[in-house]
Amino acid sequence: MSQITLLDRLGALDTNTVSDALDSLNLKGATFGLQPLWDCPKIVGRASTVKVGPKTEPTPTAHLITPVIDAVTSDDQILVISGGTDGISCWGDIIANASKMKRIRGTIIDGMSRDIDGSREIGYPVYGRGITMISARNRLVQIESGKPLQMRGVTVHRDDYVIADRCGTVFIPAKHIEEVLDLGEKIDRRQNLMVHAVRAGQPVSEVMHDKQFENISNMDGANMPSSAVRSSYPQNPKKTSIEDQELVALFKDLDTPAVSDALDRLGILGQALNIMPLVNYKKVIVGPAFTVRYVPANDPPGNVGNFIDDAAIGDIVVIDNGGRTDCTVWGDIMTQYAGLRGIAGSVIDGVCRDVNRAITDDYPLFTAGRWMRTGKDRVQIGSINEPIGIGKVRVQPRDVVVADANGVVIVPRDRAREVAEIAQRIEKSEASIRELIAGGLTIAVARERLGYHTLQRKERD
Predict the structure, then answer these.
(1) What is the C-alpha separation between 281 and 417, in angstroms, rounded?
(2) Which Gene3D superfamilies does this one have (predicted)?
(3) Same domain, residue pair 93 and 144
(4) Percent of the chain whose predicted confidence (pLDDT) is above 90
(5) Does residue 189 share a domain with residue 168?
(6) 144-158, 171-185, 188-202, 273-287: which has the minimum mean pLDDT?
(7) Within a 13 Å sphere around the CA of 226, how many CA atoms are in the beta-carbon half?
(8) One domain for residues 61 and 35
(9) How far apart are CA 134 and CA 136, in angstroms?
(10) Residue 334 annotated as lining a ligand binding site
(11) What is the pLDDT of residue 60?
(12) 166 — phi, psi (to 5°)?
């Protein structure tokens, strides 16, 4: 089979599916933390390996990586760079332009990039740990190229296969590429059938049952049971209570900053640390918490997704996975089904995957990150609708969750009315300050006139 055909087949998959195939074959390849540094397109190609490291000699050297770029002669290469240092760039716009001219497909850095706008402007994909402005000049040098290197715990050889998308980066050993593709394509077909079954109305607890995953390497992906497909989707029969609806309505015109300030004033810890939106959502979502706690898997492992059928319309699923970033607890099937069931969104102290589905469906996700490796056989449901912890905040079932582009706050149910009242007062005062500023007052005078400095001050007993 030709190299081009293999790359085309790899390009038809995503990192989630490839990661699952590697798991099933007991191969390492999925990395955590190497994410797109702008809104890059997916890239697939062959690894051209480069290792960099700190400069220790005072003598001048060639700019790092440039010899490797000059030596490229094919159009299937992805530069894979290891040895980067936090805060120090080992990539910039000049070498991005040079790589673009050499038809290199993209760059994966276990390190930092600067001048990222330059890479974005020419459409050159860059994946890595982060962005900085500090130059590598006289700080980093190229140590070697074309040799095996370590990328976030994965050994990458020259000409290994690479796929990178919004969920991260995966490396596939060249000697295993065909078996990974064969299995990945079977997994992809099965996943598509499962999504179709969910859309047709099959309960997700049945669609995602472990029996659907057993012996997948022996399946051709075309034999989903006929019971998995129904002619119409049944509406979610579970509705929120009248009290739930009343409490949610109190926060309808508020955002997380106002609610956070009200929580501060009342001395309530409710701001979920490091739980951030998947994208910069323009709307605020509010709903009662449907709590789920995951634990490490037993042997044999328990189920991972059956709780969705118990959530009511308008609920926000709040998942405590202990902040784990080594496996996900939410993917495209859960996104699809939750949306169909009228669930308002999901908050996860852990990572999600299949982010393209969530973004396309406009399903709100708030997480500690994203990664493509499945949680199957790694975690299982420990409890449902019991107290959990999210971003260092205690969450009780049916507490009020408010989430937007700024993050997530949890409002204790028994304090929701007073929190909402104070938040509305704060929001009204800030709106008045903006009006006074627009009318010509200085910000200091406007704040003093409306007592802005006292708005968030903790109330005394």
Answers:
(1) 25
(2) Ribonuclease E inhibitor RraA/RraA-like
(3) yes
(4) 69
(5) no
(6) 188-202
(7) 0
(8) yes
(9) 7
(10) yes
(11) 61
(12) -60, -25
Q: Is residue 317 located within the same domain as residue 292? A: yes
pLDDT at 266: 94
What is the rounded distance in angstroms from the CA atom of residue 174 to the CA atom of residue 155? Answer: 12
Q: What is the pLDDT of residues 265-289, one digit of tens each?
A: 999 999 999 999 999 999 999 999 9
pLDDT band at 257 (very low <50, low <70, confident <90, very high): very high
The angle that helices 256-266 and 416-438 make with each other, rounded to 10 degrees, is: 120
- 168 in a labelled binding site: no
Residue where a domain stops, chosen among 153, 172, 191: 172
Between 229 and 146, where is the model more confident?
A: 146
Query: Residue 327 and residue 369: Cα distance in Å, rounded?
Result: 11
**Residue 210 is labelled as binding a ligand:** no
Q: Is residue 449 part of a domain?
A: no
Give the mean model confidence (pLDDT) for residues 109-122: 95
Work out the burial of residue 133: count CB atoms within 10 Å of its CB; fewer than 13 is exposed, 13-18 middle, 19 or more buried: exposed
pLDDT category of residue 239 using cuts at 50, 70 and 90:
confident
Q: Is 354 annotated as a binding residue?
A: yes
CATH number of the domain residue 135 falls in = 3.50.30.40
Total domains, the chain: 3
* Residue 87: partners with Cβ closer than 8 Å, 6 or more residues away: 112, 132, 134
**Nearest residue to 21 via CA among 168, 149, 177:** 177
Domain check: are 214 and 342 in the same one? no
Q: Tell whether residue 134 is among the known ligand binding residues.
A: no
Q: Do 373 and 276 reside in the same domain of the chain? A: yes
Domain presence at residue 218: yes
Q: Does 333 count as an annotated binding residue? A: yes
Whether 5 is in a domain gets the answer: no
Q: Domain range for residue 205?
A: 182-228
Band of pLDDT at residue 36, cut at 50, 70 and 90: very high
Same domain flag for 129 and 87? yes
DSSP per residue, 213-244: TTTGGG--S----GGG--SSPPPP-----HHH
The answer as to whether 65 is a domain residue is: yes
Prediction pTM value = 0.71
Report pLDDT for 314: 94
